[in-house]
Design brief:
Layout (H helix, E strand, L loop, with lengths): L1 H19 L9 E11 L7 H12 L7 E8 L5 E7 L5 E8 L8 H14 L2 E9 L17 E4 L2 E3 L1 H12 L6 E5 L6 H6 L6 E4 L11 H8 L6 H14 L6 E6 L3 H13 L2 H6 L18 E3 H6 L4 H14 L2 E4 L2 E4 L3 E4 L9 E3 L6 H7 L3 H7 L1
Parallel strand pairs: 1-2, 1-5, 5-8, 8-9
Antiparallel strand pairs: 2-3, 3-4, 6-7, 9-10, 10-12, 11-15, 13-14
């Protein structure tokens, strides 16, 4: 037996040496990889399978050579990384790229690992990101039981400043083509400004999104066109909810390139009478949230600033916000978890919400000071 081992050893060494000279496999670089990161270990878990099936329906022949990747962590299941693509039979299929052990999918370490793994396995010239979960704009998750910031895994949440850090460390100075928030309340100027250096565009809702989420069968194609059609994605969302069984939907997209202009004008408007800006009665503003029984926290941005601005500033505000938010739309009624359906004045919804500091929320006001938007407006 030992002789046979001695005889075979040189041959095995030759084979090993020959193999070591082979070039390592390098996956092909495509034009765009889109990652749908589904933090579904929460009350939305049952909708994750439906949305993935909708993605498969929409992806059939529409990926334009790109990669559609889904990370999903559903309740009572271990996370998986999936690729949705055509199988040998020509039909769209789910291919399991990797099975993960049970983990907190909102933790910074886990998200960075998944993002980096997607970049390594599915390199692309451009990237898009869809964050799927609960959401409450920039608001911290520990303020009230309804708060979730962005992303929930059991009793853990992901905060916006942490997301900004993850994106900066993963993609560096390279901006994502878009971030789509399939979550409530994420069309917030504070969120957009915090992520302005991480993405070219943000697609989100000022208010709550019905549990069914985005109509993926209609929007996947627009994620993979040569130039991502954010407006078409928004129009498909709006069209879907106009005729849906529960006809409640508010949507917009934000171009981050013009946010600095908006910040400069906002600072002028607010700082010219800071006492008035802080003392304004929120009862006269258009609210965009009903997240807490303690009171309203988020209001329409243009509605708020118009009440502080001069006539000239109002015109400038209208022009700049038209550049920052090229498209927004809302159904006549919107649904809120705490209140049910409410009629809204759609003309007072501009596509971006803003937090108005109120004396009764000292904890939130202190937390607000950590954000880039606060530093740009109030410093």
């Amino acid at each position: 037996m030992k002789k046979w081992i001695l005889v075979l050893l040189p041959a095995l060494l030759f084979i090993a040496t020959a193999c070591s000279k082979d070039e390592p496999y390098i996956p092909p670089t495509v034009d765009r990889t889109v990652l749908v990161y589904m933090m579904a270990d929460n009350s939305l878990s049952s909708y994750s399978d439906e949305n993935i099936q909708s993605m498969m329906d929409g992806a059939d022949g529409k990926l334009n050579g790109g990669n559609l990747i889904v990370y999903v962590d559903a309740r009572n299941e271990t996370p998986q990384l999936l690729q949705l693509k055509e199988g040998k039979d020509g039909r769209m299929q789910k291919f399991v790229v990797k099975d993960y052990p049970e983990q907190n999918s909102t933790s910074e370490e886990v998200i960075k690992h998944v993002f980096n793994e997607v970049k390594q396995r599915f390199p692309a010239k451009h990237y898009g990101l869809d964050l799927w979960s609960h959401g409450s704009a920039w608001l911290p998750s520990d303020f009230d039981q309804m708060m979730r910031s962005i992303g929930q895994d059991g009793s853990d949440w992901l905060e916006i400043p942490v997301l900004k850090r993850i994106l900066a460390e993963t993609f560096g100075s390279e901006k994502l083509d878009f971030i789509l928030f399939d979550a409530c309340n994420m069309a917030s100027v504070e969120v957009a400004y915090e992520l302005r250096n991480n993405t070219h565009a943000i697609i989100a809702s000022q208010t709550e999104v019905m549990a069914e989420g985005f109509p993926y069968d209609a929007i996947i194609k627009d994620m993979f066109t040569a130039q991502v059609s954010c407006e078409n994605i928004c129009k498909s969302f709006y069209s879907f909810y106009q005729t849906f069984e529960y006809p409640y939907g508010c949507i917009s997209y934000t171009k981050t390139a013009d946010l600095e202009k908006l910040a400069i004008l906002t600072k002028v408007i607010v700082q010219q009478d800071l006492d008035k800006a802080r003392a304004i009665s929120t009862n006269q503003l258009q609210p965009t949230d009903y997240l807490t029984s303690k009171g309203r926290l988020l209001f329409d941005m243009k509605d708020y600033l118009t009440q502080l601005a001069t006539s000239t500033q109002s015109k400038d505000l209208y022009n700049i916000m038209s550049d920052v938010v090229p498209y927004s739309a809302s159904t006549p009624e919107l649904y809120f978890n705490r209140t049910g359906a409410i009629s809204v004045d759609t003309k007072r919804l501009s596509g971006l919400s803003i937090y108005v500091m109120q004396p009764k929320y000292p904890q939130l006001n202190d937390w607000y000071k950590q954000l880039d938007w606060y530093k740009a407006i109030y410093k």
